[in-house]
Write a structure and sequence with these properties.
Blueprint (H helix, E strand, L loop, with lengths): L5 H11 L5 E2 H5 L6 H10 L3 E7 L2 E8 L6 H5 L21
Antiparallel strand pairs: 1-3, 2-3
Helix pairs in contact: 1-3
Amino acid sequence: MQRLNQRERLLELLRSRNGAWVELTAILDLRMSQYNARIFELRQLGFCIESKQEGEYSWFRLLSAPVKKAAESAAFPKQPQAAQGELFSPAHQDLG
C-alpha cells in the first residue's frame, strides 16, 4: 500500500469535511511542513479552497474540485524517492 504524500493527505482531510471549515490545528495534526505550499499546489491544480482568519485562528475549506482528475498527475508528477541510506533522490543529485 502506497503512503499518501502531504498534498494527498491534506486533500483527504478537506474532502472528509464535505465543505465544512477545517481549523488549522487539524491540518497541523497531519504533521506536514509548509502546509501553505500544499494548499497553493492544490489551488494550482484547480481545487477551490477558501480560507479565513478569526483573531489568531485560521480555517480552510474545500469548495470544489477540478473537472479533470488527471490534472494532478500531469501537473505534479511524483518525484523519484531516495534509496535507503541516500540523502537525495536521483532527480536531485549533481552527477557532474
